[in-house]
User: Which sequence fits this backbone?
């Protein structure tokens, strides 16, 4: 027997018991006549005590224990003379009378402490050591709990967990596919699923009614910060449902997860249309932990001779409350430069300060009277001490830029409070998005999303301009500015699906070749259906108030999409290539 207890469970009540513990050496503090050794496992840390009076031989043996040695210790639980209030086992220690070294360890390349001295790359290379660190381990344990609670909740609601294949044909969901060559079918390729979208819809046609799966998805994208080429979704689909029922079901799941994992009871989630979110926050995933909502100024700011505003489609700003005396001219200049970086691309930034002494100061004071500027302030509800920040230009671009500024100001002003959770549903997304550059429509959600019932006719018969105004029963769950998930009511009718592919620029043949199976299935009694998927990794991170999904994945890839522990991707042998009819080509 390796252990009677784990390293996190013994308490003062256990004093006097003989126990066996196994684990890793965290530290040892050898005083010569005594050695205090901290033994660690997944459950906690327990102190082992070796001393000369008790057993001189064992004390000497304990002196050989290095960091991360794996040991088994048998001994008696007893009260500690100097207690450690910071850990649950801090009242006791083990008076050891038998010590077995189960395995030795090289000196680890970084410290296995909450705050490690190892850099990212080193910790990724020795991920098994990084995973021994408490914060990382806690994240992975937390993830397991979220997964378990998800399964419990959805099973109780009658959902079936059904696996769908990983070796499939390409499904366009906006990213590039990972491709797998087929040995048995020379020169043919599988794609790894970007999501199980078409399969879950087929499961509805098959009568499965309520499906879910906690499932890996693969997207070969250029890695932006905090994206992983393989990530996990809680993927769901339901038949005979309206949008309302789907939102309620998954609001229920979200509330359940917050309650069971954090003990937090969330209020009902507000709903906001896409259009409203864009007008009020310039974003389809607004962080609603704080206000600072957009106020449009076209009516007050145009026609007064300030050309920049007069020529703009939109003049819009935010009120940074209490910031007037926080920003010197130099600070404003820096903030303006921050906004002008190519990532944001604002042309300029106008400010208006309402000073405590009642005076008004603005970068456009030359063009506008104090009364003008005070009227703006009124529209914003600005008080003495507040500062307006105003942008102007083309509507969509300006809103996007102001969204960045709002978030930055929210950060600077400490308005994104950790532990404060503000979920909301954003609904009624546009069905199609016109892309000037490629001169094509893109599906805003994906090509299987249904237009709203009232828009079906306009979609089938309308002209090009009409297509831009179609709305979909598509929705996103947003928490604290993070998109946690999204979904839609689907098309379940062949003619409408064909029309959608046509609008998306597929020829009839292309649509048939790629999605004939789905449209074919629609001809055999497809029920109305819809669903959604939550980003599981992101959900875990948001619940724990963290920003990086990587910390919630046991074996994540680095920014180059590499697994540095196993060193993948890697070349393969000539024979493997031959078997697959593949030839290597020099990179240009
Ligand atoms: N398949 C979609 C996605 O991956 C989710 C859905 O529409 O259910 O985002």
Assistant:
């Amino acid at each position: 027997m390796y252990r009677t207890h784990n390293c996190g469970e013994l308490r003062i009540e256990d004093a006097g018991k003989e126990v066996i513990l196994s684990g890793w050496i965290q530290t040892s503090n050898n005083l010569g006549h005594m050695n205090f050794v901290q033994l660690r496992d997944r459950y906690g840390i327990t102190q082992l005590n070796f001393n000369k009076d008790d057993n001189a031989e064992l004390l000497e043996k304990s002196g050989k224990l290095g960091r991360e040695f794996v040991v088994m210790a048998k001994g008696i639980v007893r009260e500690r003379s100097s207690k450690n209030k910071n850990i649950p086992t801090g009242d006791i220690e083990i008076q050891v009378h038998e010590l077995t070294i189960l395995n030795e360890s090289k000196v680890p390349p970084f410290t296995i402490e909450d705050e490690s001295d190892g850099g990212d790359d080193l910790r990724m290379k020795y991920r098994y050591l990084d995973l021994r660190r408490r914060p990382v381990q806690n994240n992975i344990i937390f993830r397991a709990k979220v997964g378990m609670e998800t399964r419990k909740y959805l099973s109780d609601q009658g959902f079936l967990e059904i696996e769908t294949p990983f070796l499939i044909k390409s499904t366009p969901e906006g990213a590039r596919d990972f491709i797998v060559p087929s040995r048995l079918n020379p020169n043919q390729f599988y794609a790894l699923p970007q999501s199980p979208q078409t399969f879950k819809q087929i499961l509805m046609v098959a009568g499965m009614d309520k499906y879910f799966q906690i499932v890996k998805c693969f997207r070969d994208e250029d890695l932006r910060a905090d994206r992983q080429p393989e990530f996990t979704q809680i993927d769901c689909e339901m038949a005979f449902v309206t949008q309302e029922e789907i939102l309620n079901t998954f609001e229920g799941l979200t509330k359940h997860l917050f309650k069971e994992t954090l003990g937090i009871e969330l209020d009902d989630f507000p709903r906001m249309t896409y259009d409203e979110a864009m007008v009020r926050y310039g974003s389809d995933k607004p962080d609603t932990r704080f206000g600072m909502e957009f106020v449009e100024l076209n009516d007050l700011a145009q026609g007064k001779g300030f050309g920049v505003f007069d020529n703009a489609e939109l003049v819009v700003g935010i009120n940074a409350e209490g910031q007037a005396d926080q920003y010197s001219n130099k600070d404003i200049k820096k903030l303006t430069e921050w906004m002008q970086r190519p990532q944001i691309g604002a042309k300029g930034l106008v400010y208006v300060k309402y000073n405590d002494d009642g005076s008004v100061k603005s970068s456009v004071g030359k063009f506008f009277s104090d009364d003008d500027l005070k009227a703006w302030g009124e529209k914003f509800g600005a008080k003495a001490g507040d500062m307006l920040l105003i942008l102007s230009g083309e509507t969509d671009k300006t809103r996007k830029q102001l969204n960045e500024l709002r978030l930055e100001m929210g950060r600077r002003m400490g308005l994104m409070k950790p532990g404060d959770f503000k979920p909301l549903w954003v609904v009624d997304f546009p069905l199609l998005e016109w892309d000037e550059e490629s001169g094509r429509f893109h599906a805003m959600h994906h090509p299987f999303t249904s237009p709203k019932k009232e828009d079906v006719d306009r979609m089938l018969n309308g002209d090009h301009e009409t297509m831009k105004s179609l709305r979909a029963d598509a929705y996103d769950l947003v928490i604290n500015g993070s998109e946690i998930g999204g979904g839609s009511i689907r098309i379940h009718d062949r003619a409408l699906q064909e029309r959608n592919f046509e609008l998306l620029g597929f020829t009839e043949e292309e649509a048939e070749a790629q999605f004939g199976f789905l449209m074919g299935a629609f001809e055999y009694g497809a029920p109305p259906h819809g669903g959604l998927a939550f980003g599981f990794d992101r959900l875990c991170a948001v619940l724990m108030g963290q920003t990086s999904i990587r910390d919630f994945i046991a074996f994540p890839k680095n920014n180059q999409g590499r697994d540095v522990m196993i060193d993948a991707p890697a070349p393969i042998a000539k024979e493997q290539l031959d078997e697959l009819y593949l030839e290597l080509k020099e990179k240009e």
Remarks:
- The first strand starts at residue 18 and ends at 30.
